[in-house]
């Protein structure tokens, strides 16, 4: 056996390949499987960061890397495992500051260890061909013409399915579309939330964070593992995008007349917004019901609440379309509805490839049902916030318009749409409605 074949496989690259395999074979979510893989390979610090960038980048950008890889093949068929290795190699060559020789040699070692000697020569040849051209040159070759098909060009250049590009353009317009797609491909900041009454922004700042611009409870962690922050480990703070914090605050802070004692989070899993709402409610003498359909997600909600005062939150598991409470029970209701999640593509690199236009039909029907339930659950004079982590018109303004169109007892009093390229948050939508 040669010295090259005996050389140990680079551990961060092996870990990244494990993530790609789990996503492809097991339909795993990269952000959930990644911590397990990092522990398995005992990666920390820079090595963990390298594995994370390799895995997330290769999955996110496969819509661009695959046609580049295919342009360098003499035979169209390629084993899925070999394509995963080539995607990792292409990401290093085209989007990272990895020397060409290191990206190619480690990829050859990786395919030898994971697949066998057979495809090693092919991986070497394809990656050498990719390395001879810059990314911009490859985009010009494999993407549709930017003049005759501008959205098609952006879809390939920024690695988004074409239908997703069209849906985002409908919501945003074409002028800022390229900026939005580029922001979807940027690694998101790690943002923490100080749950009021349990932790302070000042405490999180001392752990290496800086205040967010829009949420009074948010802190951007400049580096390090958030689980190493004491307040996060104890449940007094949490990891939560600033946009999600603003949705919870829209529900908690909307002006209200009369009683303000009973709050409901109708779709509470996995518990980030519910924990912030629970802390706010406890500080105002209110009580939160955190409701979640799936028992295992309800368990996650309960875990997120562990630092809150006992008795301040009730966690319930059940079908939101068939509520276990009487109409008009609550003063404030949040319905953070199940959606395509196309506003959080920065955090979920595989989701853009899993969602289909058909998903919209199923989800929008459910979204209307849940918003109706929320409006029936709130008392006259109470408020409901309808939110999604998607900016798609069919899931946002169309849902609100459809429900308002058949209800004469409800007014819309406020609305916002956040964007990653503008506010630096996920593309959260929220509409505040009031029952007359």
Account of the protein in words:
Helix content is 49%, strand content 14%. The chain is of the alpha/beta class and 436 residues long. The longest helix has 21 residues, at 357-377. The chain is globular, with a radius of gyration of 24 Å. Residues 1-5 have low confidence and may be disordered.
Query: What is the second-level CATH architecture of the largest domain?
Result: 3-Layer(aba) Sandwich
Give the averaged pLDDT, no decimals.
95
Let me know the CATH homologous superfamily of the largest domain. Vaccinia Virus protein VP39
Q: What characteristic shape results from the CA principal axes?
A: globular
Please estimate the helix content.
Answer: 40-55%
The proportion of strand residues reads 5-15%
CATH C-level label of the largest domain: Alpha Beta
What is the CATH topology descriptor of the largest domain? Rossmann fold
Q: Got a strand count?
A: 11
Uncertain residue ranges: 1-5
Radius of gyration: 24 Å
Report, as a whole number of angstroms, the end-to-end distance: 79 Å
Which structural class do the helices and strands define? alpha/beta
Strand neighbour order, sheet with most strands? 7-6-5-8-9-11-10
Largest sheet: 7 strands, mixed
- The count of helical stretches stands at 20
Count of folded domains: 4
């Amino acid at each position: 056996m040669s010295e090259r074949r005996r050389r140990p496989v680079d551990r961060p690259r092996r870990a990244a390949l494990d993530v790609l395999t789990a996503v492809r074979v097991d339909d795993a979510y990269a952000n959930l499987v990644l911590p397990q893989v990092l522990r398995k390979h005992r990666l920390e610090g820079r090595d963990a960061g390298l594995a994370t960038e390799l895995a997330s980048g290769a999955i996110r950008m496969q819509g661009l890397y695959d046609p580049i890889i295919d342009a360098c093949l003499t035979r169209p068929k390629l084993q899925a495992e070999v394509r995963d290795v080539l995607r990792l190699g292409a990401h290093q060559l085209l989007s990272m500051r990895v020397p060409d020789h290191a990206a190619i040699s480690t990829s050859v070692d990786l395919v030898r260890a994971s697949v066998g000697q057979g495809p090693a020569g092919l991986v070497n040849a394809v990656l050498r061909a990719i390395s001879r051209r810059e990314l911009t040159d490859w985009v010009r070759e494999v993407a549709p013409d930017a003049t005759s098909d501008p959205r098609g060009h952006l879809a390939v250049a920024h690695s988004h399915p074409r239908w997703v590009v069209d849906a985002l353009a409908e919501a945003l317009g074409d002028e800022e579309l390229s900026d939005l797609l580029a922001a979807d491909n940027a690694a998101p900041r790690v943002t923490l939330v100080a749950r009021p009454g349990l932790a302070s922004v000042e405490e999180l700042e001392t752990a290496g964070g800086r205040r967010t611009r829009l949420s009074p409870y948010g802190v951007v962690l400049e580096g390090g593992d958030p689980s190493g922050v004491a307040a996060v480990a104890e449940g007094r703070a949490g990891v939560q995008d600033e946009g999600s914090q603003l949705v919870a605050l829209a529900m908690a802070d909307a002006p209200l007349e009369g009683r303000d004692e009973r709050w409901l989070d109708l779709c509470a899993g996995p518990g980030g917004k519910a924990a912030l709402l629970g802390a706010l409610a406890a500080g105002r003498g209110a009580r939160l019901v955190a409701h979640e359909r799936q028992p295992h997600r309800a368990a996650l909600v309960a875990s997120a609440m562990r630092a809150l005062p006992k008795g301040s939150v009730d966690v319930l598991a059940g079908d939101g379309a068939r509520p276990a409470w009487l109409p008009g029970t609550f003063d404030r209701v949040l319905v953070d509805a199940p959606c395509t999640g196309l506003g959080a593509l920065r955090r979920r690199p595989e989701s853009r490839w899993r969602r289909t236009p058909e998903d919209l039909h199923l989800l929008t029907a459910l979204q209307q049902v849940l918003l109706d339930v929320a409006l029936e659950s709130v008392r006259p004079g109470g408020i409901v916030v309808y939110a999604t982590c998607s900016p798609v018109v069919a899931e946002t303004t169309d849902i609100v318009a459809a429900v308002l169109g058949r209800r004469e007892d409800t007014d819309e009093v406020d609305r916002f749409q956040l964007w990653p390229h503008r506010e630096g948050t996920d593309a959260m939508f929220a509409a505040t409605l009031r029952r007359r």
